[in-house]
Amino acid sequence: MTVLHQEHSAHAHTHGPACGHRAMVHHDHLDYVHDGHLHREHSGHWDECEPGEHVAHSGHAHVHGDGCGHPAVAHGDHVDYVHEGHRHAAHEDHWDDH
After folding, report:
1. Does 38 fall in a domain?
2. Rounded to whole angstroms, how far apart are CA atoms 23 and 39?
């Protein structure tokens, strides 16, 4: 999975433990859910943390949804489910890794 370096410009808000936005572990960093997208701190600024390509999560038998036990996060026009340090999003007949 490729993480693009897309700076979130004019982001005056500083994320942290008391900022009010959900924090989630994503690979080797923390993402903060804010306005339907995810921010990560990078070299003194905030980047968008979005996948750079379509990555299907193969062999994922678990079906996410209300009551599945994984946190749901609004992300753009869909819902991601936080699972094992990454996010799953429904796509056609499979789940994508975000």
Report:
1. yes
2. 9
Within a domain: residue 58? yes
Distance CA(64)–CA(31), nearest Å, equals: 20
Domain that holds residue 79: 6-97
With tokens 């750079």, the residue in question is 52
Spatial distance between the Cα atoms of 2 and 76, rounded to a whole number of angstroms: 19
> Tens of pLDDT along 11-25?
667 778 888 888 877
Total structural domains within the chain: 1
Which residues on adjacent β-strands are paired with residue 21? none
Q: What is the pTM of this model?
A: 0.55
What CA–CA distance (Å, rounded) separates 87 from 76? Answer: 13
